[in-house]
Amino acid sequence: MSYNSYLYHSYYRFRDWDHLSLHSFPASSPLTPPSSLPSSECFYELFCPNPVKLYQDITKLQLIIKVPGFNELMVFVGTKSRSRIFQLSPPRNDKRYHVIVTVQVDHLTTKVIVRSPLQILNEMPLPVNVCFKKSIVEMLGHSLGELNSRVVSPVNPFDAHVPMVTLQPDQVFTIPLAVAYHSSLHIQPAAADYGISEVGIWWKDVLSSTCSYLLTCKGKTEHNPEIAAAVTIQEGVKLSSLQWEGLSGVLPNYTLCLSPPLAIHNLLPCTLTLAHPSFAQPLILDPGAKTTLYKIDLGKRISLQVQAIEFREINEAIW
To answer: Which of 20, 59, 64, 292 could form a disulfide with 260 if both were Cys (CB 3.0 to 4.6 A apart)?
Structure first.
């Protein structure tokens, strides 16, 4: 590529302020002929663009974000794919609330996503209801009408929890601002006769824990074994150190992951048969196959019978 062509493409690549970099131009070699070097005018246009035109390019697309109870927030979209964190004003309930704005630029299409920082991912093999504490939201003065679109079943006025959404396997859900900053989250199996977990998860507790949290849902009948889910935490949108400054422990920029608490992966070169009281029938694991267990009580000793079909011998594994 010639220098003139490089300068032409570099100019349009540098129109967004975030793209400016003094290391983007290739270093010249002492053997390079002087005639092939760009002129001083080209250098000036590349590294010192017209400030008026630069301002017009960056501020050409503007987005006005209106969140009930807060002032309007104006965001410059720009021409580069990126994610940024913005603080809503004024602070409420002695807290600073934030939203994440993600800009996705693909050729001539620009997509803008505005969301709460906290998300939850269902890695369980069954649908799960995600609930929040109704008392905390009512104490803050938020009516349940704001969450009507999130509620998946009629709200019982005597129930202490309100379901927000039914998460299908591998589905991600964004937690509303008021719930993300003030309420712990509870789960409930959606397709079974089970109650809501007595213990909830709070993102700060999971973040400071050295191991995964465990949520258990008891069956409404004695014949239904408990369903357990392990909760781990992952960092959300990648933010720069400047954006993270002063927000550690304040900004819930994370994804809570629900997964089965026990997984069995057959790395042996033979087929295994697994037997457990919670199984309707023995499970067969081919070499390299994996299965998960979630209808178990991890507070008790787990006894699992493992049979290697090739050896026709039953061994007992105990955790």
So the answer is: 292
- Over residues 137-196, the pLDDT tens digits come to 677 665 444 444 444 455 666 778 888 899 999 999 999 888 888 889 999 998 778 889
Q: At 109, phi and psi to the nearest 5?
A: -110, 130
The residue among 161 and 319 whose pLDDT is bigger is 161
Query: Half-sphere exposure (CA, 13 Å, Cβ side) for 294?
Result: 22
HEC readout, the chain: CCHHHHHHHHHHHCCCHHHCCCCCCCCCCCCCCHHHCCCHHHHHHHHCCCHHHHHHHHCCCEEEECCCCCCCEEEECCCCCEEEEEECCCCECCECCEEEEEEEEECCEEEEEEECCCEEEECCCCCEEEEEEHHHHHHCCCCHHHHCCCCCCCCCCCCCEEEEEEECCCCEEECCHHHHHHCCEEEEECCCCECCCCCCECHHHHHHCCCCEEEEECECCCCCCCEEEEEEEEECCCCCHHHHCCCCCCCCCEEEEEECCEEEECCCCCCEEEECCCCCCCEEECCCCEEEECCCCCCCCCEEEEEECCCCEEEEEEC
CA distance 274 to 293: 11
Cβ burial of 184 (10 Å; 0-12, 13-18, 19+) is middle
| Extents of the domains making up the chain | 3-53, 61-115, 119-260, 264-318
pTM value is 0.74
